């Protein structure tokens, strides 16, 4: 009974904190939107609209009202999921984003699989060989991934693996040749092409996604490796590891069956956070690879000052981040027997 | 009877340490119960871990370090995997830390068995449950499925004992097996351990800082100070110990019915750091 | 501890101030590891090049020469020329000044800002803490590049605005760290003693808490510099940071992109420069962490 109440309190507290963070997010995007130098009315009515038309739109947008009323209006819009239309595409922003987001999710998911698949074992190996040469080598490899300007590595990789060696597809999600061949059901190209049974397109899509995903994955594996190493070092110093060895388990069994199990929970948290951080890399890498995703949508609207679109993108990134944080929290509870 | 363990002039130096942690320790062990007593830092736990070959980075030298037919100095790790947990095992101090927090107790016990005996899961489970009964756990089926944080310290240590004795080893090293437990359950746990060790004829090394405990549960006692054995004697002769350090330790014990004077403080002498010649 | 023991202490004629001795010990420790040594050398090189840029550069970084566009690397143009015939080596050398400016300005803003909010939140606790940490949470709920993008979009693209945007997004982790450190000292006896002597809160924070937070904040700042450099370059690449014809490395890559297939040197050298400097800061931060406190390993 008391435990239940404590748990309820915990959930309530977390709910409040999420709510406050979301509210702060709204204030932030609102403020950024207001200080933007682009005149939103001009952007809608065009350069040679009459004064009358201009004033009309000005009032329609509520720009004549005091700031706090404008904020309330903004909040109402957000709550009703009305984010306005994009000036560039002329479509509702939400619709635009729903169209481009799958491409980014596809890329990020592929990347995180590579990143976690690479980073976790490397981190474990580094920890087991602490201060010996494998550790040093892995440290340099992972710091490299942390230090490279990903837009540059992307260009170089394109130059080498696409232009010179021809091992992978170039920019875009698939070869020009296949565009429009597959019906868009989920907008996840790999899924759509598989559903349609278009294996040629599927191959082409894999061929195109592998390079940007590998680069993003490498850059996120840097973080994952370093965290895995430090978690693992903590665990290897624990007594239960000694117990496992006393039982006659080999060092490898001790590490993977016992110590690794204990960092799994922390790892899940880290991978969830790394997934969010991939969005950042995606903005740059999508520009380089002409990947028609969220990042490209954001930057191209940024450059022309499409305020509605930009602010919505920022808001959505924030919400995704908060969502990932909550998710990792939940996963923590589910996986760790001590918190059940 | 052949000794289970024969150790002559064992010295251990940790990597990067200026002085060895253990110097010239010699003793033999039959199917008996040997206590190693000393204050913290005296090297008693290090000896235990060296016998198990758990000190990967330390530098270990000895004239002889023999466990039954196994030469512990030169045996390859592959051989040690076969010996550890099957023929010799070790009970660690605090079940809060020495049990894997995210695996069920029973699973951890069964794993000890399955590592060395080829058998089905259900057989290992049956063995583990039988062993839990032997350590006087009333509801073994239930405890089997509990996580370590769900059992009490005394229960945890019994789980540990079950895990370490399941494979019928010839040698068990108990490293402060009860110091982390409540005073009320210490004796109970020790009795269980003692009973099993006697029944199965296991050679036991009990590492402890508690003189009374060692006196009650061991046949012989080694007293260590600063990495050396300063005195070796039968447990019943403990009160007649000769070495000034041993005498000091004994004098520092409170006794029921004793005088109410402040207890004497150990006065250390540098001469104790000299090696002791004649060994048991 | 081992670092003080191993260094033979020459008898100083005049007593050096404690902080100088500590700094010397840290540098000595860093030079012993090849990776941090690399970091130190690159950083020193960056500062030297930035200081003496006009002397080192072989050409005027802005001088166009339409007769010699897109020349491959050679004796006269070490790293070749760009699409306007400007010498890439000279532009890189002058670009180091921009990089250094960004780093120092961001540090000067972010360090004190983060320290201030962190120590105040940690010292006073309660409502102050809740409010301040809530604010940092909001900032932390964005990837820093995206938040900087939004700020730059709002302020208009330029180098100064990029610096402001980066600084605005870089202080919350510092504040978090300073707060965590402060919480561990807050209950310490010497703080209580200072309070009993009647020291004001401001004085306690400034004299007793800030110095204790400095080592970890310094490490964090160093590690952050790598991210700052990458963010700045990213903004430059997207056309939101330094504007042409400024020889900012990220912007150079962006313009070189069009000629990349035939003229690899346009993007290769600026990229290597960014990679080296950011790697140097990462290696240095890593080394500093070992030098100052091995227990810091797993703090984010």
Commentary on this structure:
The complex is a heterotrimer of chains A (340), B (280) and C (300). Chain A is an all-alpha fold. Chain A contains 13 helices and no strands. Chain A has two domains: 16-79, no CATH class; 93-339, MetI-like (MetI-like fold, Orthogonal Bundle), CATH 1.10.3720. Chain A has helices at residues 2-35, 40-45, 51-60, 67-79, 93-128, 133-147, 150-164, 189-196, 199-236, 239-246, 251-288, 294-304, 307-335. Chain A starts with a helix and ends in a 5-residue tail after the last helix. The model of chain A has no long low-confidence stretch (mean pLDDT 84). In chain B, a hairpin with an 8-residue loop joins strand 1 (5-13) and strand 2. The radius of gyration of chain B is 19 Å and the shape is globular. Chain B folds into two domains: 5-87 and 171-278, 3-Layer(aba) Sandwich (Rossmann fold); 95-166, no CATH class. By secondary structure, chain C is mostly helical. Helices cover 72% and strands 0% of the residues of chain C. Chain C is built from twelve helices and no strands. In chain C, helix 7 packs across helix 8 (159-186). The A-B interface holds A 238-240, 242-250, 258, 261-262, 336-338 and B 52, 54, 77, 81-86, 89-90, 92-94, 97-103, 108, 111-112, 115-116, 147, 149, 160, 163-164.
């Amino acid at each position: 009974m008391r435990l239940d109440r404590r748990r309820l309190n915990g959930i309530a507290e977390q709910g409040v904190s999420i709510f406050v963070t979301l509210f702060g997010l709204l204030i932030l995007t609102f403020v950024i939107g207001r200080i933007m130098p682009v005149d939103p009315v001009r952007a809608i009515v065009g350069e040679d609209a009459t004064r009358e038309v201009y004033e009309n739109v000005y009032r329609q947008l509520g720009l004549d009202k005091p700031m706090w009323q404008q904020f309330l209006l903004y909040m109402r819009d957000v709550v009703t999921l009305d984010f306005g239309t994009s000036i560039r595409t002329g479509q509702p922003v939400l619709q635009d984003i729903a169209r481009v987001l799958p491409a980014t999710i596809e890329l990020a998911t592929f990347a995180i699989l590579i990143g976690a698949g690479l980073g976790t074992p490397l981190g474990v190996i580094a920890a087991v060989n602490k201060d010996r040469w494998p550790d040093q080598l892995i440290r340099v490899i992972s710091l490299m991934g942390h230090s490279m300007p990903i837009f540059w590595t992307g260009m170089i990789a394109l130059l080498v693996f696409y232009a010179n060696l021809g091992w992978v597809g170039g920019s875009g999600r698939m070869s020009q040749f296949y565009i429009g061949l597959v019906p868009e059901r989920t907008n996840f190209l790999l899924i759509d092409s598989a559903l349609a049974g278009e294996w040629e397109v599927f191959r082409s899509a894999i061929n195109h996604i592998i390079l940007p995903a590998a680069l993003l994955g490498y850059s996120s594996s840097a973080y994952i490796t370093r965290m895995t190493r430090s978690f693992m070092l903590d665990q290897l110093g624990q007594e239960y590891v000694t117990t496992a060895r006393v039982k006659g388990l080999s060092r490898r069994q001790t590490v993977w069956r016992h110590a690794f199990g204990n960092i799994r929970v922390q790892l899940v948290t880290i991978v969830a956070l790394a997934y969010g951080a991939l969005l950042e890399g995606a903005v740059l890498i999508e520009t380089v690879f002409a990947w028609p995703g969220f990042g490209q949508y954001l930057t191209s609207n940024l450059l022309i000052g499409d305020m509605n679109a930009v602010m919505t993108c920022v808001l959505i990134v924030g919400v995704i981040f908060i969502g990932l944080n909550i998710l990792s929290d939940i996963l923590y509870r589910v996986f760790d027997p001590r918190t059940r | 009877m052949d000794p289970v363990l024969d150790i002559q002039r064992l010295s251990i130096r940790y990597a990067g340490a200026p002085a060895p942690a253990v110097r010239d320790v010699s003793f033999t062990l039959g199917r008996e119960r040997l206590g190693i007593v000393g204050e913290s830092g005296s090297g008693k736990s290090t000896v235990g871990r060296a016998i198990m070959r758990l000190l990967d980075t330390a530098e270990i030298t000895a004239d002889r370090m023999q466990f039954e037919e196994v030469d512990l100095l030169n045996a390859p790790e592959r051989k040690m995997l076969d010996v550890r947990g099957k023929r010799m095992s070790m009970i660690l101090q605090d079940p809060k830390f020495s049990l894997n927090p995210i695996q069920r107790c029973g699973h951890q016990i069964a794993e000890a068995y399955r590592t060395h005996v080829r058998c089905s899961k259900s057989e290992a489970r049956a063995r583990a449950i039988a062993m839990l009964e032997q350590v006087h756990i009333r509801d073994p089926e239930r405890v089997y499925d509990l996580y370590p944080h769900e059992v009490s310290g005394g229960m945890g240590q019994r789980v540990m004992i079950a895990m370490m004795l399941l494979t019928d080893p010839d040698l068990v090293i108990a490293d402060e097996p009860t110091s982390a437990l409540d005073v009320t359950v210490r004796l109970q746990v020790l009795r269980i351990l003692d009973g099993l060790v006697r029944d199965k004829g296991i050679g036991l090394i009990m590492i402890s800082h508690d003189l009374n405990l060692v006196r009650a549960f061991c046949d012989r006692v080694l007293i260590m100070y600063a990495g050396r054995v300063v005195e070796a004697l039968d447990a019943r002769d403990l009160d007649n110990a000769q070495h000034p350090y041993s005498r000091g330790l004994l004098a520092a014990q409170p006794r029921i019915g004793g005088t109410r004077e402040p207890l004497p403080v150990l006065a250390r002498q540098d001469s104790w750091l000299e090696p002791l010649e004649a060994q048991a | 501890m081992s670092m003080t023991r191993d260094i033979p202490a020459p008898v100083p004629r005049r007593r050096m101030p404690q902080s100088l001795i500590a700094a010397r010990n840290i540098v000595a420790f860093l030079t012993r590891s090849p990776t941090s040594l690399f970091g130190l050398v690159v950083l020193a090189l960056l500062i030297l090049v930035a200081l003496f840029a006009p002397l080192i550069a072989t050409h005027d970084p802005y001088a166009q020469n339409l007769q010699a566009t897109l020349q491959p690397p050679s004796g006269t143009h070490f790293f070749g020329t760009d699409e306007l015939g400007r010498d890439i080596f000279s532009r890189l050398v002058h670009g180091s000044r921009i990089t250094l400016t960004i780093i120092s300005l961001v540090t000067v803003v972010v360090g004190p800002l983060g320290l201030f909010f962190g120590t105040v939140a940690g010292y006073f606790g309660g409502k102050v803490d809740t409010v301040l940490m809530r604010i940092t949470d909001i900032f932390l709920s964005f990837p820093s590049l995206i938040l900087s993008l939004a700020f730059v979009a709002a302020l208009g693209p330029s180098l100064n605005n990029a610096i402001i945007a980066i600084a605005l997004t870089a202080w919350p982790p510092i504040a978090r760290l300073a707060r965590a450190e402060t919480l561990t000292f807050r209950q310490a006896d010497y703080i209580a003693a200072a309070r009993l002597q009647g020291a004001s809160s401001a004085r306690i924070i400034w004299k007793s808490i800030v110095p204790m937070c400095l080592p970890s904040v310094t490490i964090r700042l160093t590690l952050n510099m790598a991210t700052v450099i990458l963010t700045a370059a990213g903004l430059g690449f997207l056309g939101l940071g330094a504007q042409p014809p400024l020889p900012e490395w990220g912007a150079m890559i962006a313009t070189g992109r069009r000629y990349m297939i035939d003229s690899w040197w346009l993007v290769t050298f600026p990229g290597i420069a960014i990679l080296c400097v950011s790697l140097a800061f990462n290696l240095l931060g890593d080394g500093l962490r070992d030098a100052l406190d091995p227990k810091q390993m797993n703090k984010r």
